[in-house]
């Protein structure tokens, strides 16, 4: 096996080092084409994509031009959207047309979707008929739908063909996809009748007709379906591929699991980031791109913090008469915030993965409430002991214990019901849950602690 | 197409309703076997798995026994680990042996991995030779490795066979996997020489030998490799399948992308949960299972909160003389905490996906620091205006502005350097970053605000 790479216990990081980026940049600067080619010769597609992202913008085009026909345009489907748009605008249309011919239709659509309509047309006009039709089919559907994600090139045969006929056809046809794992059976109107995994085709007798061995029990995807819904179904039902149909039930393409892997990763990644208020940031984004959205999120949180301060201000005379309250009050709020975040994160992820549903919702609410109560009692006791030891007044221990219990319970309830309510109202619970939950735990935390202190410590 | 299901704009939730769970439970109670069968007849594998999880434990076995030979044991590979262990312990060994025969080797390993050694042996002894060997190969490797994830059943042929020979072999052999997307070429010692996608095999001339058309440029996976490392490579290089070899470079199985989808989802999901301190919880876990680990996380956070309180206590006389400080101080700490969480989440996810690497680390650190400074200045100004308007003293505005700027900068630095340091030291940054970052932002927030107030407001 030449040029293989083993995936071992120590995961290989990207092959692109700072040094390589500098060397390639220098070689491009000096117009050392042979040197440039030698430096990137061993890079695989995703590595070359990394390198292009890390190069100075003016060197990116230079690299592609230097590599000329050796450059694999699949690389451009793996760079960040902004870099891709910069490059597809800078490259001449005939180079792009050549690139598009070599790519699968979903990758080709990805490459030219950002171009002006007349540039798109000029490129499409240069394509062979079959490929143009496939690519136009992809471009017909909006981004983030199954229609855009699908491969519009596929193998479809009529039901009366024999296995031998199909195999001969596959052997002789010129314009088939490079690899394919199944063959679709359609009627003359291109309505899907069934599909055949090709390992099954390989093993069937040559004189059987395909309608005898086709699989008719399939998950079908609507071309307009959201890509996250598609990904969820692939995951749930362990699908390898699913046929895509238009609104007239005509077969228009096939989505395969490798297209879906990235969608699944993105979706879970997005939730982690949305919960922290960093939305759909990318690591290659600039300061100017990320500072304003982060500001907006922090600005919303500032209102939460000010609301909490207003609650504290209600009790300023109590605090003045006993400064220990000011010392201890952040503990109650912070413990509530952390406990609320625990429950909320579980709820948000369970909603995203559709694990939380009417059949188990009551059980989960009861469970979260019970955990809130149990841990609330535990921390009430612990904090009471600490407060008494620290400040020497038993009443203060009683106050903080009661406030802690109240806030931990409030945290559990807010943590579960706020995401549920947002979801029910049609909002993405990952976007806004954090703000609402911490508002609840801050306000309840300060109000219960300072309020009880005002009542009991007079 | 009979029994198909379209994935449309409105994602279908699970087919299992509370009503169905109750009806099946009642029918089992009443021993109405026909009724039970009718109720579950239309459920697909993952739906039936959901139903089993939601049934009372004593009804689960009843359902499997009622369905008898109609029960598809693949269902048990999709239920939660605890439920699966309960069922595989309760079912007789000969039923399990029958089930194991019907499953792929990775699923079979999953089903019996929790059993006692002698039960495992009894089941293995009842299997045909080929399947026993494959299953034993899977069981040889620890959980969460490529060796456990792989399908140990695969098609391997010698390099001198012709395409026609391979096709005839595939047509006649009895013990091949149900479907397969590629064929491996091996030497007599089972060392991997190459592989052939079967769509390529289908299209090749029958008299070519396989070594002429095999692909030798492949990503190979070590059987002992961690499944997350494997998943990362699948995603990065867009792999559909990868051959798995043992430490002597012998081919022992194949990992396919559908096995990897779940690992990818789990991994991103885990990070979101680890950041919130809810580790590897499952929605079906009980109060007793989740309360103690959540307690531990909150307990660690309690120290953070107490440390922050100790900082406040340093300045108790300052607070006593100006209670407005107690009112405003949580704002500085909370804004720092939120800003730090933003940077930290970006860093943790970028480390997990290997996007953050030596080639871009300096740029990311500079970017985060710049964003911290910019947003710090913005919120310094906003809070200064609010504080002056609220309490009417300009000096207080100056103090909170300076403290806000200092804390937002500290938040950015802590948010990026703490995950980096944990990663460098070999810890998972998702586990502990939150605690350290909020400790920094709380301590710096209270210390800078109250400290500056003590210096400047005398």
TrEMBL record, chains A, B:
CBS domain mapped to chain residues: 214-270
Name of the featured protein: Magnesium transporter MgtE
Transport keyword on record: yes
Gene3D superfamilies: CBS-domain, MgtE N-terminal domain-like, SLC41 divalent cation transporters, integral membrane domain
Source organism: Hyphomicrobium album
TM spans (from-to): 295-315, 322-341, 370-391, 398-422, 434-457
Family designation: Belongs to the SLC41A transporter family.
Subunit structure and binding partners: Homodimer.
Keyword Chloroplast: no
């Amino acid at each position: 096996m030449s040029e293989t790479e083993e995936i071992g216990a120590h995961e290989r990081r990207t092959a692109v080092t700072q040094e390589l980026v500098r060397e390639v940049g220098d070689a491009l600067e000096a117009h050392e084409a042979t040197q440039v080619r030698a430096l990137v010769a061993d890079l695989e597609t995703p590595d070359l994509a990394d390198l292009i992202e890390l190069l100075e913008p003016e060197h990116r085009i230079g690299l592609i031009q230097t590599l000329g026909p050796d450059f694999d345009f699949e690389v451009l489907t793996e760079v960040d959207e902004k870099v891709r748009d910069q490059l597809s605008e800078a490259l001449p249309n005939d180079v792009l047309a050549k690139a598009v011919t070599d790519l699968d239709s979903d990758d080709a659509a990805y490459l030219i979707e950002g171009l002006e309509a007349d540039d798109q047309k000029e490129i499409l006009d240069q394509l062979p008929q079959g490929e143009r039709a496939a690519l136009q089919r992809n471009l017909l559907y909006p981004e983030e739908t199954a229609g855009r994600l699908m491969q519009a090139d596929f193998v479809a045969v009529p039901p009366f063909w024999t296995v031998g006929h199909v195999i001969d056809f596959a052997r002789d046809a010129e314009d088939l996809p490079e690899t394919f794992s199944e063959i679709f059976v359609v009627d003359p109107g291109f309505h899907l009748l069934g599909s055949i995994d090709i390992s099954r085709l390989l093993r069937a007798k040559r004189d059987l007709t395909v309608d005898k061995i086709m699989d008719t029990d399939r998950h079908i995807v609507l071309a307009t379906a959201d890509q996250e819904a598609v990904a969820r179904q692939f995951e749930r039902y362990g699908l390898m591929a699913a046929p895509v149909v238009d609104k007239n039930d005509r077969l228009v393409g096939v989505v395969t699991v490798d297209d879906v892997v990235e969608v699944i990763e993105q979706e879970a990644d997005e939730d982690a980031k949305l919960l922290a208020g960093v939305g759909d940031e990318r690591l290659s984004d600039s300061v100017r791109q990320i500072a304003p959205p982060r500001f907006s999120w922090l600005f919303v949180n500032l209102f939460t913090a000010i609301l909490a301060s207003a609650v504290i201000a209600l009790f300023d005379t109590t605090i003045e008469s006993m400064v220990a309250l000011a010392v201890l009050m952040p503990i109650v709020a912070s413990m509530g915030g952390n406990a609320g975040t625990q429950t909320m994160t579980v709820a948000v992820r369970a909603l995203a993965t559709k694990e939380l549903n009417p059949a188990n919702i009551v059980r989960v609410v009861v469970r979260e409430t019970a955990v809130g109560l149990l841990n609330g009692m535990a921390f009430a006791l612990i904090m009471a002991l600490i407060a008494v030891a620290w400040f020497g007044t038993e009443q203060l221990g009683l106050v903080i214990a009661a406030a802690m219990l109240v806030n931990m319970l409030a945290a559990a309830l807010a943590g579960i019901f706020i995401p549920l309510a947002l979801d029910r109202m049609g909002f993405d619970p990952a976007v806004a849950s954090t703000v609402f939950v911490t508002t609840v735990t801050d306000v309840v935390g300060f109000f219960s602690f300072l309020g009880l202190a005002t009542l009991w410590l007079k």
